[in-house]
Write a structure and sequence with these properties.
Layout lengths: L9 H5 L11 H24 L15
């Protein structure tokens, strides 16, 4: 005795394939990580060279 699907064997043929998972190439993820590290290193160097407490682009507080 064979068990058939409730809707019949043709139902399986019309079912869409499941979506493939999103996978990024390794080069994209390594490039993104390198970019983030470069930005963080640049910001760290800028803070070390230019003290943000003494050199600021904002005007002094008018309430002080």
């Amino acid at each position: 005795m064979t068990v058939t699907h409730v809707h019949g064997p043709a139902c399986e043929a019309t079912r869409p394939a499941p979506p493939t998972p999103l996978a990024l190439p390794v080069a994209v993820t390594r490039g993104s990580a390198a970019t983030i590290l470069a930005v963080l290193a640049g910001l760290s160097a800028w803070v070390l060279v230019r003290n943000p407490l003494q050199n600021t682009v904002f005007p002094p507080c008018p309430l002080m």
